[in-house]
Design goal:
Order of helices and strands: EHEHEHEHEHEHHEHHH
Distance between the termini: 27 Å
CATH superfamily of the largest domain: Spore Coat Polysaccharide Biosynthesis Protein SpsA, Chain A
CATH architecture of the largest domain: Alpha-Beta Complex
CATH class of the largest domain: Alpha Beta
Number of strands: 7
Radius of gyration: 25 Å
Strand order of the largest sheet: 3-2-1-4-6-5-7
Number of domains: 2
CATH topology of the largest domain: Spore Coat Polysaccharide Biosynthesis Protein SpsA, Chain A
């Protein structure tokens, strides 16, 4: 028997919220799941909250539209059970896959199981695919592990693990990306299960500018958890540019002097550009080493706190 809290963030989802709630309730009735449904109404201006409440969900309402991440944070805090499932209210995720995710968590002892949108029927808009690929590849580089789906909204995880990163979660759409990158950087066991992804009811809340927010989020998390994965490539790039400019300066000086004699000693051989890039590479590397030491120190401190608790 699984005991779970299903957290459903919703903003103006009156077209599909009742169907989503009833689907979850039917799942509880026909499977070995004892659960609650926590719907967080994120300042909807339609009948989302009233419809969800009449359908039998516990409704928590925000006074205004705070964002997808803010709704999930509220729902996770309100959850009564130690295992939390998150899904959307728009009908895009297959509710019937929740028992599969829970079974995988039980079988493998995973801290989080993600429904990877790599199934047979995946309705991801074509225009989003290149942007999603770029962000996912960047995240994979940071965590040094494969990530089939960075920001799937159907996943099951331990509540205490999610609360560990509560201060890091943004209020916007980057919640799922944050918990994925953070947990994998900290070597939590994250499993992936292929799922389908259906056409949503209503209009998507994601806009093109969110792509840049996702990129910046992954970079910020990398600096927090694995700084050298960012600082070392930048330092190597600066050193390479500076070194090549240095070689160019020497060659140009020799060609002008016509020899390698003592006249080179009184000529301005090395340019300020070469010196600037070489010094910048050293400074960036040193900053990265300090950031890495702080990241490791923070990890050790968190581990000590967990052992005490």
């Amino acid at each position: 028997m699984f005991k779970v809290s299903v957290v459903v963030p919703a903003f103006n989802e009156s077209q599909s919220v009742e169907h989503t709630i009833h689907s979850i309730q039917e799942l509880f009735a026909k499977s070995e799941i004892e659960g609650e449904i926590v719907l967080v109404d994120d300042g909807s201006t339609d009948d989302t909250a009233a419809l969800a409440q009449s359908a039998g969900a516990m409704v928590v309402s925000h006074p205004g539209n705070l964002g997808y991440g803010a709704a999930l944070k509220t729902g996770i805090v309100k959850a009564r059970f130690d295992t939390v499932v998150i899904t959307d209210a728009d009908g895009t995720y297959p509710i019937d896959m929740i028992p599969v995710l829970l079974s995988r968590m039980q079988e493998t002892g995973a801290d989080m199981v993600v429904g990877s949108r790599t199934g047979i029927d995946v309705a991801v808009p074509v225009i989003r695919k290149p942007f999603k690929w770029v962000v996912r590849r960047l995240a994979q580089y940071i965590v040094e592990k494969p990530i089939p789906d960075l920001n799937s909204g159907l996943r099951v995880f331990k509540k205490d693990m999610a609360l560990r990163y509560h201060r890091l979660y943004p209020n916007g759409f980057s919640f799922t990306s944050t918990i994925t990158v953070a947990s994998m950087c900290d070597s939590f066991n994250v499993e992936y299960v292929p799922i389908n992804y259906y056409h949503r009811a209503g209009k998507s809340k994601i806009v093109p500018v969110d792509f840049f927010a996702f990129v910046m989020l992954v970079l910020r998390l990398s600096v927090l958890f694995k700084p050298l994965r960012v600082f070392v490539p930048v330092a190597v790039f600066c050193f390479s540019v500076g070194f090549l400019k240095l070689i160019h300066d020497v060659i140009m000086a020799v060609s002008i002097a016509g020899s390698t004699g003592t006249s080179l000693l009184v000529m301005p051989v090395v340019s300020s550009t070469a010196i600037a890039f070489l010094l910048a590479s050293l400074q960036i590397l040193l900053v990265g080493m300090v950031a890495e030491a702080l990241a490791k120190r923070g990890f050790v401190a968190d581990s000590m706190v967990e052992r005490k608790n």
